[in-house]
Each structure stands twice: as structure tokens, then as C-alpha cells.
Amino acid sequence: EDPATLIANTLRIESESRLVADGAVEIYYQGRRLTAHRLVYDRAADTLTIDGPITLTDGGDTVILASQAELKADLTEGILRSARVVMSQQMQMAAAEVRRIDGRYTDMSRVVASSCKICAGDPTPLWEIRAQRVVHDQQERQIYFDRASLRFGGVPVLFLPRLRIPDPSLKRANGFLMPSLQSSTTLGTGLSLPYFVTLGDSRDLTVTPFLATKGARTLELRYRQAFRTGEIELTAVGSRDALKPGQTRGLLSADGRFELPKGFELTFHGETVSDRAYLLDYGRSDKDRLTSRLEITRTRANEHISGRFLSIQSLREDEPSDSLASLFGDMTLKRRFSLGPLGGQGGLTFQTHSHTRSSDDPFDTADDADLIADGRDVLRGRIRADWRRDWIAGNGLVFGVLGEVTTDLYHIGEDATYGGTYSRTHGALAAELRWPLVKAGKAGVNHVLEPVVQLVWAPSGTEALPNEDSVLVEFDQGNLFALNRFPGSDAVERGARANIGVNYLRQDPDGWSLGLTFGRVLRADDPGQFTTGSGLAGRSSDWLAAFQIGTAAGLGLTNRFLLDDAFALTKAETLLSYDRPRFGLEAGLLFHKADPAEGRLIDTNEIVLDGRFAIGQAGWQARLMNRYDLKADRASNAGLGLSFRNECLSVDLSLSRRFTSSTSVKPTTDFSVSLELLGFGGAAPGPSRQCRG
Amino acid sequence: QGTEVSFGGLKADTGLPVEVTAESLSVNQADGTAIFAGEVLVKQGEMRLQAGEVKVEYDATGKAIDRLHATGGVLMVNATDAAEAAEAVYTIASGEVVMMGGVLMTQGATAIKGDTLHINLKTGTGRMEGGVTTTFMPGGN
Amino acid sequence: CGFTPAYGPNGPAGGLQGHIRLAGPTDKNSFDFVTAVQARFGRTKDPRYALAYTITTEAVGVGYATDTSITRYNLKGSIDWSLTDLASEARVAGGTAENFTSWSATSATVAGLSAEEDAAERLMVILADQIALQILAASARFAP
Which residues of A111-133 are buried (b: 16+ CB within 10 A; e: fewer)? Predict the structure, then answer.
């Protein structure tokens, strides 16, 4: 039995066994702490009679405030009067009487429970649960309500004879999670009510039924398990609806991550869907291709190793699954090093790649839009070596020599025109001149101006290999000075050329900065490798112009343009984000000229706006979202949201409509309402209400 | 189970004669006081008071002791209770003992610390003041 | 016009070449980022500065076609970085570099996959160059 400690301003020993402590009284006993104004300790009866204001904390997250109390000396038993129980600084329960029972139960009568802040002038909280009796079991960390009624703004809304809620400190407990109401023009109005089941310390299962008026019935199961070296999450969703009567639709997905010996890591993500329209019909995601992957990888200084399998399920109308490359296997080893006496920095890459199509028709049919034999399977190996070294001249000029060599071995099967084995060795050698200039301007402004010229020599000649993985070529500051701008291996950039560019940066002490980059590629002669849509076609490429503005106040504007010789736009991309406490805007602009070789038959011209702004001071926020297809002169999708969040309530209303459609998917409007009482250990509370006056 | 710890131990019969022994004694006729020094021991019935030095103040008649003023580290023992402090003043007539300076009072298993302790030997009551700290055994009875 | 060569005789950035140590990469993106930064400041012989970085990327679908297919993706990247002088352990430069690259998804899956990976590699080069310029801009204030 360890002793209890009592501290006070004065201690009167009044009689046989009566001790009276007065002024700033504190008692500590086995982690429990009580503070009070006055306390009488009756040694014979071993009880404490305490006058408030009393606070009793029991080491956990629960604090009991009371005006008067009689407790056993060890603070485990007894009655506290006109008490308030505060849990995790959120949930508060005011009770006429609180009874403490053997240090575990807090039994309260005539209780008002709420996590809303109560202002003096306006005593009714936003929501409250009134109950005849409430028992808080601190060991099980559950709160049991008897004859409870939920009231909003004082108006009774729901009566529950018995209600059990986990106390805020409990992170995992069996029970219902907050329901949400969704309605969509395709599925009707429905309610989803998730139920969470803990299966021991390291596993849990969430069962979410969803019922909707137009006959849609869905059951979602999500299973999670944590292991010593990793974790997995499996989701299975089954649905029956009027859209495809008599058919069971749904999706399966699996995610996992495991640490393997020697620093390797295994990650996998699997995803498959019953039919093309499911994800859009149920508003789960607007993905049009599902990539499943299993990868073992390790990355350390100077080394990257990756082995992976990928399979892609396309949900697009014009991509039948058999003639689409769907199964991929890659092995990659990358090493970086310095070449001993030669110095500089070199890299070696060993890579194998294979992709197969389930069809074995060696000819291209009209099944799909590509010009590739329906059954073509490809297996290739690549060795790539690169090296660069820089010297700095007296006047600060950075002179660099760099080069890369690739040797590829291909075997193409089930392709009448290109079947067979190929090998190709290609390389590029370049000299680079870079002259970074700095200027520390007045009033702390910094400037950097960096002209760069790169002269590249590479063998010309034509490609014998069919180009399948290097069709989609981009031109930006990331590959302005790359020796081979093709993304894949099937094509390599040929011929002599000069890459010219200039970078400029201005940094202002007030926190805003401006970055500019201009560049162009000038070729000795036109190898005819690039399409007009990439901006790299012809003897001289389009002008590349990129600028970026950032301010300390939260504005970020990033632009990139490709302009042809007549300064007409080949491509323009802009991202704007402006983030302020009370409002924010994310905007995007995209223009990309049509390029049939890249599969883009018409111009892409789209603008996206996503704005949020706070309304009033109480915690309301509105959100507007619109994605507008300027080419088709019509919105692709639009959305409107209204949300409220304060310290005890979170409400989300959202209305969104997708205008795009295909043979299997109709345009859909979705509406959803979700309401969550904060303070039960669920979502974190928002900014608390301000009391006026 | 534990002994019946009562505060009765503070009670003492203040009417009994007071006996004082010490290594040396010096008397000051002018203000009627006497100073005992060196291993001073004051006995009254069961109550004992030890101190480094005790100044005794006699009443107007010069026969009866009016007040004892003990300094230099005082220890007072009375049946089951004991109290230690830097200084103590015992007014015989009222039975009031005031101990000051880092007072530590022990009663069986309970210890009480504080700045000043007022004990009324007649009523057996005591009051500790100033940053009082005590430990007690819940469920001791 | 007030500009001096950064690596020139009285330029501020002479002490950076070959003296910046980078935190070890943990995934493909950070591997490519380290490669791109070392292309600008050289591999580390005797480190005097340490560059710490946190990379986050997010792919966002854009260019929604009328038939619900997504024709293009933006890969948005952001790197929080800080450069510390190893001798004084003081942070001499830092900030957040943000930019994006993009790739088309209009062609078949094989082309889309390599375009996606190339976009990630280009994004790391762009962000590394941006940070390199910001280090050069700040070097006038901290380099000895």
C-alpha cells in the first residue's frame, strides 16, 4: 500500500481522527490527483469530505469537476455533486450527481453530454445528449447512456433507450461509424452505415452496407491486417442494381507493403472491376485505366534496384482487353559512381522489360485504334552507360563533357510485320557550356542568370524497331538538356543538334520570387523523328517558355508554353494555387494541339477552377468546382459544396454533376450529406466557437 | 491492523510542574529571565522538549514559569507524536506551543511538514501552516 | 550590370562545387533527384554543406474527354529542402521548390506507362535545377 500525499496551505488537526486541510488542497494517490478548496479527512471512517471547486483527474484523459464531494481516502469511491466530467478536453458531461465506483466506473445521473462550447449568454449547446443515467467504464473505455435523447439547439431530435459510444481516448472499438447519405440520378437516394469490427490488436474489418431507393444494394468489406514487417488492406465490394439487373457488379482491391531482408521492400497494389461503368456509376473514382502492380525495390546511395510485374485493365470503350498490352515485367538495376582517375559522375543501368497481349493474332485488326499487331509480345534488354564531367574556368564558366551509350536487344513475337530479333547500339556525346551569374541587388534582392548551350552529336539514321513505348514525347525544362528525349527505349534521338536555354531567378526579401526559363533545340538536319504535337518537330523546335511566380502570401503560379515559329500555341499548361486562411483557389489551364500520331485527334482545351471561401465567422465554408471543356464548349464536371465545422460538429453537403458520357455510362448528378458529432475521438475538432459579448 | 493513530497524543496536562535541566544556566534578575544552554531538556509529565538553548520567562512573582522560548533546533515528544522545528515558544498558561522553521511532525506512520505549527496541549488540537505536506495511509483503519 | 560569375574569382559559389552532401535516396524519385543535383554541384568529395530534402508528388488527371476518358495527367511535385553548413551547423538556405510535369495518356498502355515514368524523371530534374538556382541565389549571403 503506497501512501497518499496531501498538500495544503493550512492543516488543522482538530480531534481524534479529524484532519482539516484548507487553501489550495491537493491529493496525489496512485496516479489520481484531486485539487479542492477545503477537505476534511476522517481517518477513522477513511473518508474525505471535500468542498469545491474540485477537480479530480485519474491519470487518464478524464477530468471530473465538482462543487462538493464525499470520497474514500483513495479517491476510488464516493459521490461528487453538481459535477462536470470532461474527457480528452472535448466531451463534457454535466451531472447533478457523479458516483465513483472502485476507481473504474463513473456513474452519473441526470446528465447533459456535449462537446460543444457553451457560452455564458447562450447556454444551449449546438447539440447535446441528455440522459437519465450515464455510466463511463474507464477500463473498457465505453460510455453507456440510459434513456438518452439527442437534441439540436435544444430541440429533441432522436430518442434512444440505450446508447453505447466509445470514449474519446479509445482508438479502436467495435461499433457503428458515422452514416452518410448519398443520392445520385443513377442510383437514387441511399444510406451507407459502416460497422467496424476489431479482430484482435492487429486486424480489423469494416462492413459497410449501402441501400438506395432505385434498388441499388451494395455491401463493402474492408479487411486490414498489420504484421511485424508490414501491413495489408483488402477491399471487396459487391453490388446489385437496376442498371445491370441480375448481374453482380463490384470491385476487388488489395494493397500491401512488407519490409524484406537486406533493405528490400515489397509493395503491391491490385485493383479490378466487374465492368467498365462501375466506378463511375457508383462515384467511386473517375479512373479509366486500372494498374495493378507488385514490386520489390531497394534504393540506397548510388544504387536503385527494382523488379516488378504490372497488369493494366482498361475501362475505355475503344480498348478491348485482348489486343491491349496488359501484362508487364521489368527488372532494373541502376548504379552511380565516379570513374576513378577520370572523376566526374557516371551511371550504369541494366534493364529487362517484357509486355504481352493475350491475343495471338499477328495482324492488326480494327478492334482497337492502334496500328500494332493485336498479338504482339515484346521482350527486350538494355544496357545504358552515361558519364559527365565538369570543369570550372577562371571566369566562372562551367564547361562540361557528357555522353551516354545504350545497347538494346529486342525479341518481338506474334507480329507478322515486325516479328524477330533486333539489336541496336546508339550513343550521344555532348559539350555543355553553363555560365551562372549572380547579383546581390539592393535591398536584399537576389538575381541568378544562367545561359546554357549544349552541342550534341549523335549518329543519324532511321529506326528499324517499331515505336510503341516512345510515342508520347514531351518537351519541357526537364528534358531541354537531355541527350535522348524519348520516354521509352523503342526510339532514340538521332542527329547533331544544339540545345540552347537561359534560366533566370529573382528572389525578393518580401518573399516573392520569379523564375523564367527559355529554350530551343536547333538541329543540323531534321531527322523526322518527332510529331508536331511534341513541339520538337522540324530542324528547329518550338520555343519553350516557362515562368513561375511564388509569393509568401500563398500564391503559386506555374506556366509552361510551347510556341511555334509563328508564335502560335502548340501547348500551354498553367497551374495556379492561392491559399489563404479564409479562401483558396486552385486553377488549371491546358491547351494541347491535336496530334493524331499521339492519339489526340482534336485539340485538348480545358480549364479547371476549384475555389473555397469561408462564410461568416461561425465555421461555414463554401466550395465551387468546375472543369470546363473549351473545345466541346461544355462543362465536363462541376461541383458545389457547403461545409460547417466547429469544435463539436462537422457537416458536409456536396452536389456534383458529371456531364461526360459514353455508351456504357450516362451523365450523373450526385448529392451527399454527412454529419459527424465531434468529440468522440473521431475526426479532429475544428476551430472552436467564439462567444459574443 | 494499524495502531489506532489518534491525535490525542497532542494532549498534555499543562498543570504539572515543569523541570528543566541543562549544562549551564545564567539568570538575569533585571527582566526576570533565565537562559539554559547546552543539551537543554524540559520535562512536564510525559511531554519532553529538547533544545540547544531555552530562555525561560518567569511571571511577575518570579516563582512560576510564564513562557519557554527554545531555539537552536527543538524536538518535542509527547506519547506517540513528535515534532521538530528550528524554534518553539511554549506559553504554559494557555498550553499554546508554536513551533517555527521547517516543522516536521510525525504521528505513527503519518508525517506532516510545514512552516509553522500551533499546538494547543489543553485541547490536543494542532494547526500546521505554510506549504503543508503530509502523507497518510488510505484505508489505514 | 552588376552580375558576377557565381563560380568566378570573386563569385560566392566557389565553395559549393563538390562540397554538398545529399541525404541518401530512399526511392526512385529521390534517386533521380540526387543524380540531378549532383549533375549541378558534383559528387561529394569532402562535404562542407548538407542538403536535406522531402519529396512529395501527386498525379492529377486533366484533359477529361467527352467520353469520360482522361487524356492527360499532371504530376505535381514539391520538395521541402534545407542546406546546412556542417561547420557551424547553421541552416544557410532552404525553402520549398514546386513545379509540375505532365504526360499524355492518349495512346496505348505501353506508351502511357513509359510516358508516366519519364514525367517523374523530368520533374526531379526540374525541381533539382530550381533548388540549384535558389542555392546560387542565396550563396552570395552565406558562402565564405
Answer: bbbbbbbbeeeeebbbbbbbbee
Candidates B134, B118, B115; CA nearest to B126 is B118
The cell numbers describing B117, all together, are 505549527
Residues 6+ apart with CB under 8 A from A5: A27, A28, A29, B133, B134, B135
C-alpha cell at A36: 479542492
CB-based contact A547:A561 (threshold 8 Å): no
For residue A437, the number of C-alpha atoms closer than 13 Å in the C-beta half-sphere is 15
Q: pTM score, two decimals?
A: 0.81
DSSP secondary structure string for all residues of A312-374: EEE--TT--STTS--EEEEEEEEEEEEEGGGEEEEEEEEEEEEEE-S---SS--TTSSS-S-T
Residue C87 distance to chain A (closest CA, Å): 23
**Predicted confidence band of residue A400 (pLDDT cuts 50, 70, 90):** very high
Q: How confident is the model at residue B14 (pLDDT cuts 50, 70, 90)?
A: confident
Closest residue, chain A, to C95 (C-alpha): A511
Residue of chain A whose Cα is closest to the Cα of C18 = A344
Q: Which residue of B has its CA nearest to A8?
A: B132
Higher pLDDT, C27 or A41: C27
| B9 and A CB contact within 8 Å | no
Partner residues linked to A579 by β-bridges: A584
Omega prior to A53 cis, within 30 of 0: yes
Q: How far is B52 from chain A (nearest CA, A)?
A: 28
Q: Quote the CA–CA distance of A276 and A284 in Å, as a whole number.
A: 12
CA-CA distance, A65 to A77, in Å (whole number)? 15
Residue B7 predicted with pLDDT over 50: no
What is the C-alpha to C-alpha distance for residues A328 and A597, in angstroms, rounded to an integer? 23
What 3-state class would DSSP assign to B70? strand
pLDDT at residue B127, rounded to an integer = 86
Report the C-alpha gap between C23 and C4 in whole angstroms.
Answer: 30
The pLDDT-based confidence of C134 (bands split at 50, 70, 90) is very high
Specify the pLDDT at position B10.
64
- Interface check A30 vs B, CB under 8 A: no
Question: Tens digits of per-residue pLDDT, A286-343?
Answer: 888 999 999 999 999 999 999 999 999 988 887 887 778 888 999 999 999 998 888 8
Angle between helix axes C28-41 and C109-142 (nearest 10 degrees) is: 40
- State the CB neighbour count (10 A cutoff) for residue C15: 16
Q: Do A4 and B10 touch (CB under 8 A)?
A: no
3 state DSSP class of C110: helix
Q: Residue A414 region, left (φ>0) first, then alpha (ψ -120 to 50), else beta?
A: left
Q: What is the pLDDT of residue C31?
A: 97
pLDDT in tens, A137-191: 988 888 899 999 999 988 998 898 988 888 877 878 888 888 888 888 888 899 9
Say how far apart CA A522 and CA A497 lie, in whole Å. 5
DSSP A171: S
Quick count: other Cβ atoms within 10 Å of Cβ A690? Answer: 11
C-alpha span between A289 and A313 (Å, rounded): 6
For the CA atoms of chain A, what is the radius of gyration? 34
Compute the radius of gyration of chain C from its Cα atoms: 18
Q: Cα-atom radius of gyration of chain B, to the nearest Å?
A: 16
ipTM value for the complex = 0.79
Q: What are phi and psi of A227, to 5 degrees?
A: -110, 175
Bridge partners, residue A128, by sequence = A151
CB contact under 8 A, A10 and B127: yes
- pLDDT tens digits for range A220-230: 999 999 999 99
> Distance (Å, rounded) from C-alpha C14 to C-alpha C48?
12
Q: Do A6 and B135 touch (CB under 8 A)?
A: yes
Compute the nearest-CA separation of A207 from chain C (Å).
29
